[in-house]
Amino acid sequence: MSEAYDRAWQASIADPNAFWGAAAQAVDWINPPASTYSEAQGWFPGGTLNTAHNCLDRHVAAGRGGAIALIHDSPVTGLIRHFSYAELLEESGRVAAMLASLGVGKFDRVIIYMPMIPETVFAMLACARLGAIHSVVFGGFAPLELAKRIDDATPKVLLTASCGIEGNRTIAYKPMVDEALALAQHQVDHVVVCQRERQQADLGGARDTDWHALRAATAADPMPEAVAVGAADPLYILYTSGTTGTPKGVVRENGGHAVALAWSMQNIYGIGAGDVFWAASDVGWVVGHSYIVYAPLLVGATTVLFEGKPVGTPDPGTFWRVIERHGVKTFFTAPTAIRAIRKEDPDAAHLAAIGTGTCQAVFLAGERADPDTISWLEEKSGLPVIDHWWQTELGWPAIASCFALGDLRRKRGSAGFPVPGYAFAILDEGGQPLPEGQSGAVAIKAPLAPGAFRTLWNNHSGYAKNFATYAGYYETGDAGFIDEDGFVHIMGRTDDIINVAGHRLSTGQMEQIVASADGVAECAVIGADDAIKGMVPIAFVVPRAGFEHDETIGPRVIAAVRAELGAVAALRTAYVAGGLPKTRSGKILRNLLRKIVNGEEWTTPPTIEDPAVPDRLQALVQRHEVV
User: Fold this and answer.
1) How far is it, in rounded angstroms, from Cα 432 to Cα 110?
2) What pTM was computed for the model?
3) Of 2, 187, 195, 241, which one is least surrounded by beta carbons within 10 A?
4) How far apart are CA 515 and CA 373, in angstroms?
5) Helix (H, G, I), strand (E, B) or coil at 627
6) Which residues contact 331 (CB under 8 A, 6 or more apart)?
7) Which CATH superfamily hosts domain 48-308+407-414?
């Protein structure tokens, strides 16, 4: 065990007030907190600060204004732009002045419906500067889903762009904004549109404003001062899909967020002032909020904002090209991105030709990283590949190998060890702890660490439900186990445990076996209804390049599961498909697969990456093209 990690974790659990009180020294406070934690007020009660000041002003004041803060690398447009800390402060300050001219002030909400362009980052930091609450909605989200978020957040202003670029497609945003506002009950005062060269938007009516014209009109206005907000005041609302179809707005507080993210950059990822960090995500997701925008800037690092895809923009070497070009020290992406690269370039020819420059580690998160994908990337890159786990609700990693604390222990299939600040338990249905090695519900002891949510926007009762099942614990909704070495294994959502003729089986465990079969690029295993056994597992397999016509893939994955788990696993059906339904963040939509297989009614989710995939899979299932 790493002594540094062990000391940090033990200290965080034995005396969290002392541990997080020390960590809070990394943040500039306008008024220091009166204490570290209060049951009623949360973390750092009485403290006031400004997150934008902590990300920008203080670095410029410390003489680092010329250091590069943001690199925008856009292979879809061929543009690469660099912004120093002084320039990023100026640009975000100009947007703050624009918003102030439209009447936006402390605690007002602003919806940001924009692509991966620098103006999106300017807008987020501008809201933070004003003490306004931003809610970033993934650009290109369906109008109905955007309308739901407008009605819940009741924003004063909506910021958007004329278009986004998804791979080879150009998606017009303004028509979707107009449709969303037609559907919404709440109406914004202003829609500000950032026109892009690829496609211009038509502006009409008094509500619409051109971004660049507004910037010019407010150019002489002074940059607004960084507004003091309380540690428990909201920085942003980030919506996740709710179980009822109504999105739930996770509220992120300023104080705990700044402290936790600054600590994580230095102690998990090994990133400090002057280092280059790249999270290949989107600002519409929690990873983009935490590790594209806020965390790197809090510690004075350089962050990379990437507008492209892991393959096709222009080829499966684009990730390695960005890493090498910009001197990325630590790289963060989703397992599905690596699987996509491997599918197109199974021998890693692009990686071999380009290399990984000065990169020291690769972190994976967003969904479970199967051991075969980790093994392939470690072999081809020569770098430690570290799976780690967290949720939108938590805001930063809760399970990881803390690379910067000298802890490089890894076990493929596990997300690592509890991060300092988090104490985990594996519980049975009655809330009793299970012995090591036994699967159950993954829970975290309350109170949650700084940075984690403490309420849902307009829905505190919905928040409280997360703590209602197990007294004193936050219910993560995931199933897993802790092994004899202390590694935490997240096997999937609790509803991915299926009951086959009285046997409780993990579809995540089956996926791990299927994914390791030769020629498999990615896979999903779901539980389908069965009249005799209650449920049976069904596999969906996507072949790697060169294996598209290999008729042995299906029989081989079925045989592999049977060999490892025995006949009780009852996996007898495997569909070989061209792709799986996934969200834009890379999560496989297993509930959708389950409905398709069960013949239930389904609708195309607004978060889906390729809307054509479910129809193709339904046709495949209806033709009974199984092996």
Assistant:
1) 44
2) 0.86
3) 187
4) 8
5) coil
6) 278, 280, 319, 323, 356, 359, 361, 362, 363
7) ANL, N-terminal domain (3.40.50.12780)
